[in-house]
TrEMBL record:
InterPro entries per UniProt: KR_dom (IPR057326), NAD(P)-bd_dom_sf (IPR036291), Sc_DH/Rdtase_CS (IPR020904), SDR_fam (IPR002347)
SUPFAM superfamilies on file: NAD(P)-binding Rossmann-fold domains
Record-annotated Ketoreductase domain positions: 26-204
Matching Pfam families: adh_short
Organism placement in taxonomy: Bacteria, Pseudomonadati, Bacteroidota, Cytophagia, Cytophagales
GO MF term set: oxidoreductase activity
Family classification: Belongs to the short-chain dehydrogenases/reductases (SDR) family.
Keyword S-adenosyl-L-methionine part of the UniProt annotation: no
A GO CC annotation given for this chain: membrane
Keyword tags: Oxidoreductase
This protein's name: Short-chain dehydrogenase/reductase SDR
Domain of life: Bacteria
Length: 282
């Protein structure tokens, strides 16, 4: 008899697995762990009983975060994500210490505050290298371990800018859009290996992301955006991330009214385009 294909309605009606991801005793590797969302997520994961690997460039800041985690088992692992040759040795060090990697949170990255016309091409290259290519490189290095385990959880800090376009952030938006294309495809590839993929899309979170953003010439922007300053706390953001991990969510939007932009783009794109145009410098 001819093979019958399941209808679209079948997939809509079949419930998703309800098993929760357990963080207790899991090995949870966080990049960009020295501040902001990474630091807050490390604290929240430690409270759930996870064992942590903390990575960022500055060891002193990582040690500071470690001091906040009580008796949690922690491996402090300085790592410059722009140096791709450091990635495989870092993975080997985690495996030598813990013997497994259950969750990888690709959280390191950099933003931008400059127009396309004024921005040096080298700035776009650096943003793409750090925000996209280094994430792909670390994910590829960890993926065989998770496949062998037949389990794992990949988390990626994207942004609402990975779903929308924002003036003065074209390079940043492009790098975050690229993450969605890559990880949406990867999610389908690794489903049968019981590997989860979670895209985390923050809006305005009160961190130093705008202060550390790159200007047109590659220098530090050095200013706190007003919207950023009035954003939700990193702690609230981290709690939502932990909840999304435990419930095997595939994509989450974190913020206040700016989250509505995702739905405006879907249902009223012309209205969103008008709003975005009004945000552009005059």
């Amino acid at each position: 008899m001819p093979r019958r294909h399941k209808s679209f309605l079948f997939y809509l009606c079949v419930p998703l697995p309800l098993d929760m991801t357990k963080l207790k005793d899991s090995v949870f590797w966080i990049t960009g762990a020295s501040s902001g969302i990474g630091e807050a997520t490390a604290i929240a994961a430690a409270q759930k009983g996870a064992k942590l690997v903390l990575s960022a460039r500055r060891r002193d800041e990582l040690e500071r975060v470690k001091s906040l985690l009580g008796n949690t088992e922690v491996l402090v692992l300085p790592l410059d994500m722009e140096k791709l040759d450091e990635i495989q040795p870092a993975v080997d060090q985690v495996m030598a210490h813990f013997g497994r990697i259950d969750l990888l949170f690709n959280n390191a990255g950099i933003s931008q505050r400059s127009s396309v016309m004024d921005t040096k091409f080298e700035v776009f290259e650096r943003i793409m290298h750090l925000n996209y290519l280094s994430v792909v490189a670390l994910t590829k290095a960890v993926l065989p371990i998770m496949v062998k385990q037949n389990s794992g959880h990949l988390l990626v800090t994207s942004s609402l800018s990975g779903k929308l376009g924002s003036p003065m952030r074209a390079g940043y938006c492009g790098s975050k859009h690229a993450l969605h294309g890559f990880f949406d495809a990867l999610r389908a590839e690794v489903y049968n290996h019981h590997i989860q993929v979670l895209m985390v899309c923050p809006g305005y979170i009160k961190t130093n992301i705008s202060i550390n953003a790159m200007s047109a010439d590659g220098s530090k922007h050095g200013k706190m955006d007003e919207n950023q300053n009035h954003g939700i706390s990193p702690e609230e953001c981290a709690n939502r991330i932990i909840n999304a991990i435990e419930n095997n969510k595939q994509e989450i939007y974190i913020g206040k009214k700016e989250v509505m932009g995702v739905y405006l783009k879907r249902f009223f794109p012309a209205l969103l385009n008008k709003i975005v145009r009004n945000q552009a410098p005059k």
